[in-house]
Amino acid sequence: MEARAANIEKKIASKDLKRAWWRWWTFAEASHSFERLMGLAFCYAMIPTLQKLYTTKESLQEALKRHLQFFNTQAIWGGGFILGATIALEEENANLPPEERSYEVVTTTKVGLMGPLAGIGDSLDWGTIRPMLLALAIPWAEQGSWVGGAMPITIFMIISIIYGQYFMRKSYSLGRGAAVMFLQSKTISNIIEGASVLGMIMMGIMAASYVNIVPALKWSINGKEWALSTILNNILPGLLPFATVALIYLYFDKKGLKITKCLMYVIVISFILGLIGII
User: Which of 103, 128, 141, 164 is placed for a possible disulfide with 199 were both Cys, Cβ 3.0 to 4.6 Å?
Assistant: First the structure.
């Protein structure tokens, strides 16, 4: 694959890569089906490059069928890398005589990379970057500012376009070895580990700042009034929010991510505690 640039005629221009990326970015999450999931969007993104690579009707039809198969990954990290690598493999095949082409490599590369890249992309995009942006936007939202709603969406869209397109171009230039280099890169491993730690810190900050539980329970001893909230704050400020978040985490860990059921438990318990005057 290192000799790829020297031996293969370049038929795909920069504008073709840009067009493929914008097609993918626009429709990656818009055409899901139970049978193919993101397969239709991936094929749609590949059409302009396939039309340049395969000039006969039969070869183009076969290429379209290849990319209409089941496909599912994280749209930015996985989609960007796999799209670029797939275009490179198709270009490599198109430069060979028909009898020497290996289309199985294209399919197996796509299938093999879907899961690993999706795991990385989900952890960083949805598990780290998006919660951080939401945490920054919450103060504006609490004040009724439109910035609280528009800011996280806008920033996430911009940065996802920038690095997603970079991934696609980089993987295209390196071909099938791009994802292997990416997955084995120590720098990327450090980024993922650092982002995970940062994400946990941000979750702790959000829990301490926005989970507000104030006990209403008070009592008097020898004419002196005691408040449960004051006692708990003297022991450890934010103890109740921390305990609440920890219990919810343990629930998800034991029972799975049953969000609706967990919300119902929180509502019912809060109602009962409020009704008897504890909170």
Answer: 128
Under the banding of pLDDT at 50, 70 and 90, the label for residue 275 is confident
Determine how many CB atoms are found less than 10 A away from the CB of residue 242. 16
pLDDT for res 71: 92
The pLDDT mean for the chain works out to 82
CA–CA dist 203, 260 (Å, integer): 20
Report the pLDDT value the prediction gives residue 187, as an integer from 0 to 100.
Answer: 67
- Choice between 119 and 193, residue whose per-residue pLDDT is larger: 119
**Side chain identity at residue 207, one-letter code:** A
As to burial, measured by CB atoms within 10 angstroms (0-12 exposed, 13-18 middle, 19+ buried), residue 243 is middle
**Residue 5 burial by Cβ neighbours in a 10 Å radius (0-12, 13-18, 19+):** exposed
How many Cβ atoms are within 10 Å of 138's Cβ, its own excluded? 14
Residues 6+ apart with CB under 8 A from 1: 174, 175, 176, 177
Q: What number of other Cβ atoms are within 10 A of residue 34's Cβ?
A: 6
Give, for 226, the enclosing helix (H) or strand (E): strand 224-227
CA triple 182-186-191, angle to 5 deg: 85
Cβ contacts of 87 within 8 Å, gap of 6 or more: 12, 17, 20, 46, 49, 172
CB under 8 Å to 178, separation ≥6 — which residues? 81, 84, 85, 88, 170, 171, 172
Q: How far apart are the first and last CA of the chain?
A: 65
